[in-house]
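Slide 14.
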Amino acid sequence: MLKSDSTTARKTLGAPDGNQSPKENKGAPIVAGFLRQIEPAGPDAEPGIKDAVSERTPAQEATPDLQPTEPGSTAHPAGEIELKLLVDADRMAHFGAAPVIAANARNKGSRKRLKSVYYDTPERALRRAGLSLRVRQSGTRFVQTVKSDVADDPLRRGEWEASVPSLAPDVALAMPFIPEKLRGQLDAQPLEAVFKADIHRHTRIVDLPSGTVEVAFDRGDLTAGGRSMPVSEIELELKSGGASAIYEIALRLAEHGTVRPSIRSKSARGFDLAADQPPSARRPRKLGLDPSVALDEAFAAILRSCFLHLLQSLPAAEDGRNPEGVHQLRVSLRRLRSALDLMRSVGALGNLDALRSEAKWLAQGLSAARDWDVFQLDTLPAIAKACPSVTGFDALARVAAQRQAEAYRGVRNALDDRRCALFLIGLGGWIETRGWRNGVAPEDLGRLAEPAVNFAERVLSEQYAKVLKRGRRFKSLTVDELHRVRLATKRLRYLGEFLLPLYEDRKSARKFARRLAGLQEELGVFNDMAVTASLLDGLGADDRDSTIAAAAIAGWQARASIGVQQALQDSWRNFTAARVPWTRQGQQS
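Slide 15: predicted structure.
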């Protein structure tokens, strides 16, 4: 059942004898606007073979610890500053001639053909565990690579390489970087080729006053069985200097033509292609904030979480086959706006209003698609099944499907809009350079250094009080008043997701979060009924059967609202009885 939005690198190849060696890029990891600063590589570093950061499948709840476990092994995950831009294949040469490239590239660059084969067990044990294993050929060289997310940083990839004699994998070389619980499966189930990548890469080194960036223009195909998928993307990797260089190039390329920032790797795309399934869309990862963290660092973690959620949702939303894509993208934008509102509590921080306005603009392009998804995939079939004697549901579904298709065209238009790309790239740069500090009044800078827990207690108390005030005499509230309660509750829910991790050691925090989520869900069900009524009013179904079906839906929901009212009142009572975790009483729970 669908839920409404109310519910909620440089590499060092292995030695000639095949010994495994770690990746050694000393850059800072950036993925589509994300940055974690570490010492950048030297300006004379030679470009290496690399791939993009991949996303995990929904089943991958935990990230394996890929520290080598064999005696004497010393490999460690390495980082890179990288931003990927998806572009139309017939425009690739256009971007290659962009002024920022033409005026600043050292030379005409180098060209390579990269052939890769990605392997897994028949049951996809590696992918389920958040791992990928590929062998790549470049000229006469063959390199085997194991990749994994780092447990405490979803934007950074662990990566280990070894030279191999052919495109066939050498499992023994990969074993030190495979979690022990998976090794038995690899012994019992031989690896099989899942898909292939054939990429033509044109690499150029671009020097700006702020830094040196490797720009790789990738064109090719992924193939699995009888299916294929084109690849057309530009990868920007910082080689030396400051992260502003990579953002400067990305923004100037976005101004030159249509680009789409992405963190979806070739690996993720290839496995979905092999399974013939749409991109996945997931809920955001739970934040982990230490109670002693400073407010400035907490803001960075919260915004990074929102931005990651947003970028992870984009492929499924654009693809359109998985309705969870638009849902999660819409939720991510609401979370982002709530985070920006939260930061406004500190003072006049730079660019908050402009970023919030852009997030609101993008979210407006998603609302209709989400409403029709809920109607088509949840509301209509459930009521049609419950009312088999009523005719016209099929006719009504056809009319609704047309509106749904129109709404998804609007989604794709918004995501293809240059305004969207500029927003995403600008947002990423603002977050990772902590641009909110710019223009901050001197008296507010000190507040950013204070413990986040002090700030959390104040803002959570204020929003909790607002919810209680709007919910006063709850049983007698009108539909409009319940809508205001829902909005206040939703904001408290997002603030709770951001700040309750500061109180994670308290049982009261978990109980409060559960009851808050329950209340928001019931309020969302009630709101969905109002949305359904507005959709039916705007359908314009003029044939008799469709009109009968629409009337049946309206009548069914009117009757169901009686039961919803009782469930809503129960959820309100449970919520108000929960002890808030940020008080002294909450500390005792």
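Speaker note: Residues 3-79, 151-155 have pLDDT under 50 and may be disordered.
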